[in-house]
Amino acid sequence: MEKAFLIGKKIYLRGLEEQDLENLRKWLCDSEITKLLFQGERPLNLDHMKQEFQTKINDDSEIVFAIMTKSNNKHIGWAGIYDINRSSRNAEVRFFIGDKKYWKMGLATDAVSLLIDYAFNKLNLHRIFGGSNIENKGSVKVFKKLKFKQEGIIKEGHFRNGKYYDLVTFGLINKSTNI
Question: Is there a smaller number of Cβ atoms within 10 Å at the N or the C end of the chain?
Fold first, then answer.
């Protein structure tokens, strides 16, 4: 497990590296993968992605990981903690499995469970939240399985594929944090 930072049951998370951007570009240009995501609405330029990566690499408000399989050290997706607000002690979690061969195997759940532990026990956050297109059954299932509470529905909050989609938001409170 090369450069493992957080280790789960079937996957591990390591820091996202510039070499991972080609996989991300490939996945985010695949309409089957992005049809229910917020990304993929325009073509991605690898040089632009590298510039953005260099800008964000030292941004303390986000921590982004590559999702790697333990069995063969294969990069299959990304997961991260974004918009970290240290005074409010909350942040957003985002995730996706880009390699379609690894869909519906519980790997996103494994990755997000690692993010929860890291956010609450290492970053000492009080609340984490996330959201999804309501039709993205996989993402909704991950949030529910990991005991996130549904906090709301944003009616017609995202336009994609020629129609409006409702968005669902979830939150999870760290019950063990002290004020």
Answer: C
User: Cα(72)–Cα(69) distance, rounded to whole angstroms?
Assistant: 6
Under a CB-based contact definition with an 8 Å cutoff, are residues 39 and 139 in contact?
no
Looking up residue 22, the CATH number of its domain turns out to be 3.40.630.30
User: Is residue 103 assigned to a domain?
Assistant: yes
Q: Along the 179 residues of the chain, how does pLDDT read in single tens digits?
A: 779 999 999 999 999 888 888 888 788 777 777 666 666 565 666 777 777 777 777 788 899 999 999 999 999 999 999 999 999 999 999 999 999 999 999 999 999 999 999 999 999 999 999 999 898 899 999 999 999 999 999 999 988 878 899 999 999 999 886 65
Order of strands, sheet of 63-69, starting from the edge strand that comes earlier in the sequence: 6-7, 11-15, 63-69, 75-85, 90-97, 127-133, 163-173, 149-160
Instruction: Provide the number of structural domains found in the chain.
Output: 1
Map tokens 């240290």 to a residue.
Answer: 86
Amino acid at 11: I
pTM: predicted TM-score of the whole model, two decimal places: 0.90
